[in-house]
């Protein structure tokens, strides 16, 4: 999706990403989660840690992880990478207010290997994987592998969408997303791409008439773990119900050119 399409989508669905306002609870929850996650054996780094937050938005995940690591005595350098410049600027301001050194980069996450960065940790936080096809995720895994240091760690946080949609909730072609006096937002299943494995859903506000389509993949943890094991030597899952963290450690050395 383009920068404008992403901006329009996040405004339409009212995604809680502003850490000063509606995203504050998400940020506080992220800190709570990372205070548990950083005790995992995969977090075996030196005193100086560099983090790349991919598809970062306002950086809620990356800033929370950085803050927790600073609490444990690490020196942290954070990079926020996203296509939406306005969100990155909010993230930079918030990061600095939290005492985190931060650099923002406007880029497609599939091109992270072209930015000349090296990092200890790469992060995708907030169910970002739902917007990537299996082909995209393979390219992202390769790009991240090229960017991480030898003992680097890739963290993917989000929901087991497949389990939730097809087992807990049950798949529905039309869903009410938000209904109040100002907005009646529904999502409608439109199509399925058999090659890319992506569903097309349109979000439509029946009051304003605004609509936007998005390609969605109903990933499960097993699918992401399977791809992760191609690119990383060790993979683990920390799960809390349908939410979880996939931790992929030690890149095998595969590069984007190897799979294109």
What is the 3D shape?
Answer: globular
Unreliable residue stretches: none
Rounded to an integer, what's the Rg over CA atoms?
A: 18 Å
Which range does the strand content fall in?
25-35%
Terminus-to-terminus distance: 20 Å
* H/E topology pattern: HHEHEHEEHEHEEEEHEEH
Which oligomeric form is depicted? single chain
Major beta sheet, strand line-up = 3-2-1-4-5-11-10
Count every beta strand, where a strand is a DSSP E run of 2 or more residues: 11
Alpha plus pi helix count: 8
Mean pLDDT: 93
What this model shows, in words?
With 260 residues, this protein is α/β, with parallel strands linked by helices. It has helices at residues 3-13, 24-37, 60-71, 85-97, 134-147, 161-169, 221-231, 256-259, and strands at 48-54, 75-82, 101-106, 119-124, 148-159, 174-179, 184-193, 198-205, 211-216, 232-240, 243-251.
């Amino acid at each position: 999706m383009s920068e404008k399409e992403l901006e329009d989508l996040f405004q339409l669905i009212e995604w809680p990403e502003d850490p000063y306002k509606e995203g504050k609870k998400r940020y506080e929850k992220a800190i709570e989660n990372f205070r548990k996650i950083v005790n995992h054996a995969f977090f075996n780094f030196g005193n100086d840690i560099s983090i790349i937050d991919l598809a970062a938005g306002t950086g809620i995940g990356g800033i929370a992880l950085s803050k927790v690591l600073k609490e444990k005595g690490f020196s942290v350098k954070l990079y926020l990478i996203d296509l939406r410049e306005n969100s990155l600027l909010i993230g930079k301001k918030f990061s600095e207010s939290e005492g985190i050194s931060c650099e923002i980069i406007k880029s497609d996450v599939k091109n992270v290997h072209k930015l000349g960065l090296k990092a200890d940790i790469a992060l995708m936080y907030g169910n970002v994987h739902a917007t990537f096809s299996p082909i995209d995720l393979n390219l992202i895994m390769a790009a991240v592998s090229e960017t991480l240091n030898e003992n680097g760690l890739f963290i993917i946080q989000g929901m087991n969408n497949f389990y939730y949609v097809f087992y807990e909730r049950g798949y529905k072609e039309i869903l009410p997303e938000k209904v109040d006096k100002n907005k009646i937002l529904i999502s409608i299943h439109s199509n399925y791409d058999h090659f890319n494995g992506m569903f097309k859903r349109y979000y439509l506000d029946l009051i304003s008439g605004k609509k936007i389509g998005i390609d969605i993949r109903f990933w499960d943890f097993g699918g992401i773990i399977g791809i992760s094991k191609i690119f990383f030597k060790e993979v683990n899952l920390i799960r809390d119900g349908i939410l979880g963290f996939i931790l992929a450690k030690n890149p095998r050395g595969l590069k984007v050119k190897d799979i294109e």
